[in-house]
């Protein structure tokens, strides 16, 4: 019965695989005269130790295979009489290794070079594709004067409106075995791989291939194994997307369009006007990921540890079956990988310590680089310890030869051999949907085997003797052992067997062992060491302090503050009655307490670009997708009393991206930072930036190029949003379905009063033009940001009801600030505008209290009112004043202890508390810095020892280069120094 | 001797300007921050013909004009050590930028010549206590001569106090770009670490060569047998440095860069000032041993190394001064610093909050800049014999909330109104619509 089932099983597979295999077993096999005749297809490997599958070892057994398929395996199996018998006693046989992520070049340019609107062409008066159905249907990416969106009409054929979306690309359609690549892979023991495309954002479909010596038709085992998406930012200067958040928005919209495409083609409800037929290869190709049976797997390459979380979130949002390619830095936040609940394809491309020409050059090496190096080998173990299923890949290795050495390093760091074997065989086979054929040694599977000598694959001395691919033998040992000797022997290539040479060899061996021992022990601490709250008492009572309430109570002297469970219980007098158990009582004579400070305009904790500045409207992009919880600026800003930041998109376009309000709960991941009660908002911008005035001569075609065009543009987009909302209403009443458009969704939310506008604005004329335009759509603007000439139209702003979030005293850096004055805040305040002072800079965000003090100097705003400019006023502007911004019972216990008045420039922030937890304490800082310095010193010593010793000598140049590679988290490590808007002449 | 005469020439001009003012002035009964010594309470300052002639509590002499301070504060005029004030109006508008010249070695460039006396930025700096600024050229390796100007005057010749107060040498960067080639923005221009170091060493040799040539020129100029000697304006421009008449401002921020620059200048024995000095706090003994003062530009620079404490640059001036290094709290010749000069007192205040004494914080804005510009005998403090460049404020100038009330430069009262106050008054009076 069992046997029958297996036979049936293999019959099914053969049917599924079609004629390819059938043909190989029949007439075509008889070679014409003159050719070397094909070998008989029956083999028996006898006497080896056999890992049938991970964790299951047959100490001594026989494997029989016929025409490429395993027909029998076991301890007592007798080789059939027609088999060629191989005595492999003393060898170890594993299921053939399988690489789930072998990225191959994607041929032909998917991204078109230039269009009729190429920025290098002169002037805007060239032929411009006019409006009509084509423009309206191009997915919201077609704006006047923006180049680089259209697909090359001569090349790529029908497809998606954005050139980075090419899901219709099929690796199977282009795959040609590359002998050199395949030889290299077989040397490492690999017998097959999933070959994946490597260009674009939605990159297309991979194929599963085996590493035989047949042509493409014989090699491909599964033609459309998965769809591939990478959060890579490949866009040039003018092509959407050129930011990480833009890339994520593009992924979302593409899948929405795919759903719409399916609906549109199936909506034949009677009475509904039929829509014009439209073919889209890209959207057609995405259907199997949404509704296939089974649905096609989508593999995300998020390219950074934090984006792993986003990949999971986006995949779940769309409803995809997905896997994730690890960035190699999951050790930074393993809880994110764990929470993703996906299987991971894990590269083991570990950096090697650099060889620096002199000792002084180590000055340039950061602690984070050293940590990334020291942690790297532990990544697979960390993932497994967190219960994540992983498959290993050679992907991202600079030198494929480093694979085994790195694997050994990973094993040395706690990755088990059984897990490693699973990650090379069964897991990748399953992830790629070929577990019926590959991944273990059992009857009915393909005869793909990896054969090592007695030391085995995981011993660095062990040698891969041969691999079998579909029952064909590929001998790999000779070459690779020779190479290994040369490499490990260093200079002494021609060593003769003298005693001297032997001693030298031994010495080298010892050194190598030492290096391995040294590498085994991790010195780097977890990156979150020393971050996060240092005290989380159930309750805190602070007595005898001066309390700036930023509420009606004003400034209270000799006052107390009681916090229970993260919430303010009382402010002012000492409460009667008993305090909760565990209350920390702090007597603070002379100490001033203020509410936690809010920054209404920050760009500090954002990954992968603060601007999606390509399109004039990028309302679909979300800062919330790219919050950087890892940056040191969080700590620096906490140290200045900041507790809440409004993370904004830049001002490169009239309609920017969606904002994200965060609390500086250092130590938590991106989701933990988000201030969930804050209503959503969006960044708008006016003036020089959006008309590209300072971008250089190449940027002269995008609409708008003048202040006249800005309100025109808004009118256009909000009219579109109104019509979109109306169409959606009709659709819900049974009308024709409406394609969901993320840009218009955001604009509709604004029309509905659900999304706040924070608008970057300078000159009085543009301010009024903007307010009147928005009024005509029934929208009240939440805040005018920077608002340098706001003082000239303060009455109008007050009447409209917009808040003003101003610079304290910036001026002089560009023409539109020619009339900026530091009295602006006071003047607007006097005329009834709600005023806040913002930073727009990672530096100023560290001392917004002192920026507020400038309102006392310039315009004599009373001190308690001036402090409100950075506490309750921004809280009101962000509509979070129910929870933060003042010290009043019932609010979040976000407060700051100052050595003196918060408006005195000689005062120091002593402690910063958020929700009753102490996130910053000045007294701990010296120790914190010392620990970091010591860690760096120890790591440099280790790196130098390894780089200088023989362990380093074997490192490849590519591995050394990898030391300097940065993930997004590292690239934006230090944030924005000056105000972002002053970053002239860089793009903003 | 020559310098002495020169001093009087300029000073004479200042007196002429002040001719409409009272010849003698008594600031009576206030808190006098001398910057040279302790703060004097209930003290008065008496000046005549633009010079301070008495400071103390019992000045009996009658003055042409007397101002009752009623407890207000008197400070010496603040001095911007490194600035481009008057050289740049609006940074983003190229036509208004005169602070950068092309060419690697331009010792014959003089910055004071392109100060716009009517720049709107000058009154704004004055309004918060600044009476003088060193204007600094930028661009290339050796950018030329800075000069010191008083922040008031009809013409640049009225304003100039020192036509050359220093020469500016921008030391080659010691940073290494470790971006792998395949990630480089421009792959053709990518250089290996080795090549970068070679290039940097070559640049340093080039500087050495330039100064060697300059010294040869200086010797030839004086030599009787140098028959083929010809005057070369560029070498002439270098002479004041070689003769020790003006300091060489070594612009360097990074640890190894500072080390290299100081080693170089110590070997050549030029008078030097370290400008920038971001990592100087790690090299205190090198600086104090060689008696090199620092024009520190980085109080508000974010930490650069990920092991640095959050307050690393707030604390740096205090660390330097404690180690015996003289520190001026300065802006730079770059970018925002022209319009932000008015905020430099708060950089000093931040340093004070993080370990610098109040006395040294004020000195860092007054007496130390004066000294390192070679004007220590003339500006920077309220002492008998010094120029009456000073201002009255209603509080400590280090406190943001303080208002500057009146100001004198070389005994002449100067206005504190600016474009900012004018626009403030104008729009404050705007009728409600």
Layout of SSEs?
The complex is a heterodimer of chains A (988) and B (433).
Chain A: H1 2-17, H2 19-24, E1 42-53, E2 56-66, E3 69-74, E4 84-87, E5 92-95, E6 97-104, H3 133-136, H4 171-174, H5 179-187, E7 190-197, E8 202-205, E9 207-210, H6 216-219, E10 220-222, E11 226-230, H7 244-266, H8 281-291, E12 297-301, H9 305-318, E13 322-325, H10 334-340, E14 343-347, H11 367-376, H12 379-385, E15 390-393, H13 402-412, H14 417-424, H15 426-431, E16 449-452, E17 464-469, E18 472-475, H16 477-489, H17 499-520, E19 539-548, E20 555-564, E21 567-572, E22 583-587, E23 592-595, E24 597-602, H18 633-638, E25 642-647, E26 655-658, E27 660-663, H19 670-673, E28 681-685, H20 709-732, H21 742-751, E29 756-761, H22 764-776, E30 783-786, H23 794-800, E31 803-806, H24 824-830, E32 835-837, H25 848-857, H26 863-868, H27 872-877, E33 895-898, E34 909-914, E35 917-921, H28 925-948, H29 950-953, H30 957-962, H31 968-971
Parallel strand pairs in A: 1-4, 1-5, 6-7, 11-12, 12-13, 13-14, 14-15, 19-22, 19-23, 24-25, 28-29, 29-30, 30-31, 31-32
Antiparallel strand pairs in A: 1-2, 2-3, 5-16, 7-9, 8-11, 9-10, 16-17, 17-18, 19-20, 20-21, 23-33, 25-27, 26-28, 33-34, 34-35
Chain B: H1 2-17, E1 24-33, E2 39-48, E3 51-56, E4 65-68, E5 73-76, E6 78-83, H2 121-126, E7 130-135, E8 142-150, H3 156-159, E9 160-170, H4 193-222, H5 233-242, E10 248-252, H6 255-268, E11 272-276, H7 284-289, E12 294-296, H8 312-322, E13 327-329, H9 344-353, H10 358-363, H11 367-372, E14 390-393, E15 404-409, E16 412-414, H12 419-428
Parallel strand pairs in B: 1-4, 1-5, 6-7, 9-10, 10-11, 11-12, 12-13
Antiparallel strand pairs in B: 1-2, 2-3, 5-14, 7-8, 8-9, 14-15, 15-16
Helix pairs in contact in B: 4-5, 8-9
């Amino acid at each position: 019965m069992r046997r029958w089932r297996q036979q049936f099983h293999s019959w099914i597979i053969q049917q599924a695989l079609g004629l390819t295999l059938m043909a190989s077993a029949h007439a075509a096999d008889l070679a014409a005269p003159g050719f070397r005749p094909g070998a008989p297809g029956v083999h028996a490997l006898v006497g080896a130790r056999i890992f049938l599958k991970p964790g299951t070892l047959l100490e001594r057994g026989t494997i029989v295979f016929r025409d490429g398929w395993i027909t029998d395996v076991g301890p007592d199996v007798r080789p059939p009489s027609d088999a060629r018998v191989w005595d492999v006693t003393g060898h170890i046989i594993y299921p053939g290794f399988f690489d789930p992520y072998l990225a191959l070049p994607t041929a032909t340019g998917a991204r078109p070079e230039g269009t009729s609107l190429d920025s290098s062409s002169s002037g805007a008066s060239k032929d411009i594709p006019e409006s009509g159905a084509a423009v309206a249907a191009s997915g919201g990416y077609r704006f006047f004067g923006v180049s680089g969106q259209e697909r090359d009409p001569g090349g790529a054929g029908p497809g998606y409106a954005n050139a980075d979306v090419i899901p219709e690309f099929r690796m199977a359609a282009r795959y040609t075995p590359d002998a050199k690549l395949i030889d290299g892979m077989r040397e490492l023991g690999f017998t097959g791989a999933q070959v994946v495309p490597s260009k674009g954002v939605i990159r297309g479909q991979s194929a599963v291939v085996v590493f035989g010596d047949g042509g493409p038709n014989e090699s491909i085992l599964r033609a459309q194994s998965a769809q591939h998406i990478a959060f890579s930012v490949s866009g040039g200067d003018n092509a959407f997307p050129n930011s990480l958040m833009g890339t994520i928005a593009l992924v979302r919209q593409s899948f929405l369009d795919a759903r719409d495409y399916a609906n549109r083609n199936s909506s034949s409800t009677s009475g509904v006007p039929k829509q014009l037929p439209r073919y889209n290869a890209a959207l057609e190709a995405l259907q199997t990921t949404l509704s296939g049976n089974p649905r096609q797997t989508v593999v995300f390459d998020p390219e950074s540890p934090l984006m792993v979380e986003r990949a999971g979130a986006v995949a779940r949002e769309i409803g995809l079956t997905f896997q994730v390619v690890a960035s190699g830095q999951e050790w930074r936040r393993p809880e994110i990988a764990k929470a993703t609940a996906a299987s991971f394809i894990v590269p083991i491309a570990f950096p090697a310590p650099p060889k620096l020409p002199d000792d002084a050059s180590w000055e340039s090496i950061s602690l984070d680089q050293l940590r990334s190096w020291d942690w790297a080998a532990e990544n697979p173990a960390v993932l497994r310890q967190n219960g994540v299923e992983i498959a290993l890949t050679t992907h991202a290795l600079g030198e494929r030869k480093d694979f085994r050495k790195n694997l050994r390093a990973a094993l040395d760091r706690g990755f088990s051999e059984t897990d490693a074997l699973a990650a090379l065989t069964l897991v990748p086979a399953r992830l790629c949907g070929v577990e019926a054929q590959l991944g273990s040694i059992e009857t009915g599977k393909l005869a793909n085997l990896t054969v090592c000598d007695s030391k085995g694959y995981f011993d660095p001395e062990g040698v891969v003797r041969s691999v079998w691919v579909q029952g064909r033998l590929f001998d790999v040992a000779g070459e690779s052992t020779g190479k290994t000797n040369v490499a490990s022997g260093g200079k002494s290539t021609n060593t003769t067997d003298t005693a001297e040479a032997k001693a030298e060899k031994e010495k080298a061996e010892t050194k190598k062992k030492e290096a391995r021992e040294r590498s085994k022990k991790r010195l780097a601490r977890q990156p979150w060491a020393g971050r996060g709250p240092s005290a989380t008492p159930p309750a805190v009572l602070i007595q005898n302090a001066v309390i700036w309430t930023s509420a009606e109570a004003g400034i209270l002297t000799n006052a107390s503050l009681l916090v229970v469970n993260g919430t303010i219980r009382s402010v002012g007098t000492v409460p009667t009655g008993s305090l909760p158990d565990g209350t920390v009582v702090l007597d603070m004579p002379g100490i001033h307490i203020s509410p936690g400070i809010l920054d209404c305009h920050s760009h500090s904790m954002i990954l992968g670009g603060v601007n999606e500045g390509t399109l004039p409207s990028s309302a679909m992009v979300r800062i919330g997708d790219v919050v950087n919880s890892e940056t040191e600026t969080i700590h620096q800003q906490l140290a200045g009393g900041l507790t809440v930041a409004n993370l904004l998109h830049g001002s490169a376009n009239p309609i920017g991206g969606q904002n994200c309000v965060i609390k500086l709960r250092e130590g938590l991941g991106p989701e933990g930072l988000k201030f969930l009660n804050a209503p959503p908002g969006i960044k708008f911008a006016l003036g020089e930036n959006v008309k590209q005035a300072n971008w250089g001569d190449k940027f002269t075609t995008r609409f708008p190029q003048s202040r006249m065009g800005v309100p025109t543009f808004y009118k256009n987009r909000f009219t579109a949003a109104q019509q979109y909302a109306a169409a959606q209403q009709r659709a819900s009443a049974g009308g024709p379905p409406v394609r969901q458009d993320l840009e218009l969704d955001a604009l509709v939310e604004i029309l509905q009063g659900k999304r706040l506008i924070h608008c970057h604005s300078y000159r009085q004329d543009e301010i009024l033009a903007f307010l009147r335009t928005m009024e005509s759509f029934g929208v009240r603007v939440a805040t005018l940001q920077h608002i340098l000439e706001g003082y000239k139209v303060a009455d109008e702003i007050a009447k409209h009801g917009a808040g003003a979030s101003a610079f304290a005293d910036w001026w002089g850096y560009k023409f539109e600030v020619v009339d900026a004055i530091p009295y602006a805040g006071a003047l607007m305040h006097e005329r009834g505008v709600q005023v806040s002072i913002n930073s727009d800079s990672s530096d100023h965000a560290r001392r917004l209290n002192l920026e507020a003090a400038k309102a006392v100097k310039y315009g004599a705003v009373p001190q308690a009112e001036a402090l409100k400019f950075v506490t309750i006023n921004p809280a009101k502007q962000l509509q979070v004043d129910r929870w933060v911004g003042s010290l009043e019972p019932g609010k979040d216990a976000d407060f700051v202890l100052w050595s003196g008045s918060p408006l005195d420039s000689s005062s120091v922030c002593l402690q910063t508390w958020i929700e009753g937890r102490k996130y910053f304490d000045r007294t701990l800082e010296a120790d914190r810095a010392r620990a970091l310095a010591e860690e760096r010193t120890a790591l440099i010593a280790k790196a130098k020892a390894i780089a200088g010793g023989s362990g380093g000598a074997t490192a490849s140049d590519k591995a050394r280069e990898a030391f300097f590679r940065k993930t997004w988290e590292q690239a934006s490590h230090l944030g924005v120094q000056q105000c972002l808007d002053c970053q002239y002449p860089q793009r903003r | 001797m020559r310098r002495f005469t020169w001093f009087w020439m300029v000073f004479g001009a200042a007196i002429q300007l002040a001719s409409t003012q009272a010849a003698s002035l008594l600031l009576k009964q206030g808190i006098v921050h001398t910057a040279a010594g302790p703060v004097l309470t209930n003290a008065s300052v008496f000046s005549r013909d633009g010079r301070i002639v008495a400071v103390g509590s019992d000045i009996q002499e009658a003055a042409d004009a007397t101002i009752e301070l009623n407890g207000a504060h008197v400070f010496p005029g603040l001095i911007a050590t490194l600035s481009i004030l008057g050289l740049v109006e609006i940074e983003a508008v190229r036509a208004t930028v005169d602070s950068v010249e092309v060419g690697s070695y331009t010792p014959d460039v003089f910055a004071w010549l392109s100060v716009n006396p009517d720049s709107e930025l000058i009154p704004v700096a004055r309004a918060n206590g600044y009476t003088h600024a060193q204007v600094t050229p930028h661009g290339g390796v050796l950018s030329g001569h800075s000069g010191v100007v008083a922040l008031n005057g009809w013409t640049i010749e009225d304003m100039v106090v020192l036509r050359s107060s220093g020469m500016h040498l921008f030391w080659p960067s010691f940073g290494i770009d470790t971006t792998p080639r395949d990630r480089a923005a421009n792959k053709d221009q990518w250089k290996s670490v080795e090549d970068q170091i070679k290039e940097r060493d070559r640049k340093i040799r080039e500087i050495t060569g330039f100064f060697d040539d300059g010294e040869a020129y200086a010797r030839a100029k004086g030599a009787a047998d140098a028959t083929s000697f010809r005057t070369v304006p560029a070498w002439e421009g270098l002479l004041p440095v070689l003769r020790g008449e003006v300091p060489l401002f070594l612009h360097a921020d990074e640890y190894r860069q500072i080390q290299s620059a100081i080693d170089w200048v110590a070997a050549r024995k030029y008078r030097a000032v370290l400008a920038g000095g971001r990592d100087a706090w790690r090299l205190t003994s090198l600086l104090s041993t060689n008696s090199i003062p620092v024009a520190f530009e980085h109080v508000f620079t974010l930490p650069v190394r990920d092991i640095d404490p959050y307050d690393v640059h707030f604390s740096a001036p205090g660390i330097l001064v404690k180690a015996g290094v003289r520190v001026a709290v300065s802006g730079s010749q770059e970018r925002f610093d022209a319009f932000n000069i008015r905020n430099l007192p708060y950089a000093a205040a931040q340093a004070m909050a993080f370990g610098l004494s109040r006395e040294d914080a004020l000195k860092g804005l007054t007496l130390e800049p004066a000294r390192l510009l070679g004007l220590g005998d003339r500006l920077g403090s309220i002492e008998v014999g010094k120029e009456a460049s000073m201002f009255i404020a209603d509080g400590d100038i280090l406190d943001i909330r303080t208002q500057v009330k009146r100001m004198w430069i070389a005994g002449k009262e100067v206005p504190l109104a600016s474009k900012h106050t004018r626009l403030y008054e104008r729009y404050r009076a705007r009728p409600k619509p």
